[in-house]
Amino acid sequence: MRILLTNDDGIYAPGLEALHGELIRLGPVDVVAPSVEQSGVSHSITYLEPLLVQEVFRKGKLFGHGVRGSPADCVKLAMLQICNTPPDLVVSGINAGANTGINVLYSGTVAGAIEGAFFGITSIAVSLASCENPDYQRAARLAVQIIEQILAGETRSGALWNMNLPESRPGWPIGVKTLPMGLGRYGEAMERRIDPRGRPYYWTMTVPKDEHQIEPGSDVEGAADGYITLTPLHFDLTDRRRLGEFAGRSWQLRDV
Where do runs of H (alpha helix) occur along the chain? Predict the structure, then answer.
């Protein structure tokens, strides 16, 4: 099995290095990741300027390619130019911080996996909830165990999964749950400040966890309760129910 590994925290991120160290047990790993952090860029792509690529070495050996672009850019470039052999699996992560709920839509980590699924390849995004001392090595071992089980039971080509590991703390994770992504807004705030010249500016802030409203039965709740959460995703945004409701409507046009 050949694996393509990317992320949104950058090619030097500890989560990517830890996951690389575990994935090589499954087969050769091609690393193509942003050269600098790309958190929150969602599925943005670069097409108004060239993509700059540099080889990254560790311990005298080629580790991967750093791309001055988004995670989606990285996967697209890997598929079309860098990888001599197409991968059988795309993994994106380990992200520093959970990608649960509507954060899935903002996440560059998830977007990297989505781009892999665009190419018809099973793709998995992996994130670790934030804490003071994240244990990426243990998270990587656990993630690869789950990835192996996903591959053993997944029959669809281009299957897309979002995996979130809970905080690194004793006794966690408690287990694994397959859950839907939460749809509520949470953890958002903007703080207004004044710069030295008297001009206002704003910082996007993180709201304390105790102020979050957690949806029961969601991936947000599962990760907060200490579970590894798995959410099968798809990138078809069509609202099938409403499509059916409006399919028979007679639309009127006026020449004005």
Answer: 14-23, 71-77, 103-106, 108-118, 136-153, 219-224, 240-246
CB 129 within 8 A of CB 172: no
Angle at 112 between CA 106 and CA 113, to 5 degrees: 105
Could you tell me which residues come within 8 angstroms of residue 157 by beta carbon, excluding any fewer than 6 positions away?
120, 121, 122
**Distance between CA 163 and CA 157 in Å, rounded?**
18
pLDDT of residue 49: 96
Please check whether residue 109 is in contact with residue 16, taking contact to mean a CB–CB distance below 8 angstroms.
no
Please tell me what DSSP assigns to residue 48.
S
Which residue in this structure is represented by tokens 């656990």?
A: 142
Taking only the tens place, the pLDDT of each residue in 53-95 is 999 999 999 999 999 999 999 999 999 999 999 999 999 999 9
Rounded CA-CA distance 196/8 in Å is 32
At 131, the pLDDT band (50, 70, 90 cuts) reads very high
* Across 204-215, average pLDDT: 74
The Cα angle at residue 150 between residues 145 and 151, in degrees rounded to 5: 100
Up-side HSE of residue 147: CA atoms within 13 Å toward CB?
A: 30
Phi, psi of 146 (to 5 degrees): -70, -40
CA neighbor of 13 nearest in space, from 89, 77, 74? 74
Nearest to 104 by CA among 32, 45, 26, 161: 161
